[in-house]
Amino acid sequence: MGSNILYIEDNPDNMMLVKRALESRGYTLFQAMNGFDGVASAEREEIDLILLDINLPDIDGYEVARRIRSSSKHALAYVPIIAVTANALKGDAEKALSAGCDVYMSKPINIRELWARVEAFVPSPKSK
Ligand code: MN
């Protein structure tokens, strides 16, 4: 199994935070700043896990999840998707899960929680 993670996020501060946090654990981070680029990256690259912001400038994260799950690239039916959003409103978790996400995480991003959530699906190259 690889350790390629795709983060679909339009906020540069969150992107930098997650990049540093995951690269420090040996993961390789692929970055997409909007939903369409995110879906395209997922289809183009060999991705082992997707971190998905919900509030994106074009299509929202729910739509991104649905497009990834219904992609003609078979592996994307099974790639783990962790939804990450500031909208911790009631019902968001359910919406993310019903759109095809596996797990839901709220912002602000807690690095230890991020590591734990990611490692539950993809072992850190540094823990091998
Ligand atoms: Mn956003």
Helix content: 25-40%
Task: Output the number of helix runs.
Answer: 5
Ligands in the model, by name, code or SMILES, are:
manganese (II) ion
The N- to C-terminal Cα distance equals: 12 Å
Which consecutive residue ranges, at least 5 long each, have pLDDT under 50?
none
Overall pLDDT level: 94
**What gross morphology would you assign?**
globular
- CATH architecture, by name, is 3-Layer(aba) Sandwich
The neighbouring-strand order within the major sheet is 2-1-3-4-5
The CATH topology, please?
Rossmann fold
Largest sheet properties: 5 strands, parallel
* Rg (CA only): 13 Å
Task: Count the domains.
Answer: 1
> Using DSSP, what is the number of strands?
5
Going by CATH, what is the homologous superfamily?
Answer: Response regulator
Order of helices and strands: EHEHEHEHEH
Structural class: alpha/beta
What's the CATH class, please? Alpha Beta
Strand proportion, as a percent range, falls in 15-25%
